[in-house]
Design a protein that fits this description.
Elements (H helix, E strand, L loop, with lengths): L5 E3 L9 E3 L2 H7 L6 H10 L20 E5 L5 E4 L2 H7 L4 H10 L2 E2 L3 E4 L10 E5 L4 E5 L2 H8 L3 H9 L9 E5 L1
Antiparallel strand pairs: 1-2, 3-4, 3-6, 4-8, 5-6, 7-8, 7-9
Length: about 170
């Protein structure tokens, strides 16, 4: 099964040092697990200040909402997680994390943030009921452009929010 298992312990690349494990040693090492009480002791030893991540803040948690702001139109899109925002923007969550950390524009147009939107005099939240994606607009006109309709239609529907707009969008003033 594990006959003549070779372990490379070369300290210098190209040197001929090779260590061969006997079959008995290999069989002892394969499938070896810690006992439950040992696992508990290791877990307890890493609590509090002994934890290597104690006192360090994660740059972006995957459970906070992500804002994507289009700098040309000032439209704000809110995503429930970093991975959902990355999927929508056709990139990886690791990439978005670095744009948040270094406070730079993504694709030269999008500002990525983790904070909640600043309260404005007028803020209209539009929720796509099929995808649960939320867009926030700072004017009826910008919402109308985003929904491909007229500003008066958005205004009328926001005042009479009985049924979803086009059976797809729920509008709400913030």
């Amino acid at each position: 099964m594990y006959v003549n298992k070779v372990l490379n312990i070369r300290s210098v690349r190209g040197s001929g040092q090779i260590f061969r494990l006997s079959n008995e040693v290999v069989l002892k090492l394969v499938g070896k697990n810690h006992k439950e009480d040992t696992k508990l002791l290791m877990s307890v030893s890493k609590l509090g200040e002994n934890n290597p991540k104690f006192g360090k803040l994660n740059v972006v948690s995957t459970y906070i909402k992500i804002q994507v702001i289009h700098t040309d139109t000032n439209c704000i899109s809110i995503y429930p997680s970093l991975s959902k925002a990355a999927k929508q923007l056709n990139t990886t969550s690791k990439t978005l994390k670095s744009y948040i950390q270094y406070n730079t524009l993504f694709k030269s147009v999008f500002k990525i943030k983790t904070a909640k939107p600043k309260s404005k005099v007028f803020c209209l939240e539009v929720t796509n009921l099929e995808t649960n994606h939320i867009d926030i607009y700072d004017s009826n006109r910008k919402a109308a452009i985003g929904l491909s309709t007229s500003a008066s239609s958005v205004q009328r529907h926001t005042n009479n929010n009985i049924k979803p707009f086009r059976n797809k969008y729920r509008t709400k003033l913030l």
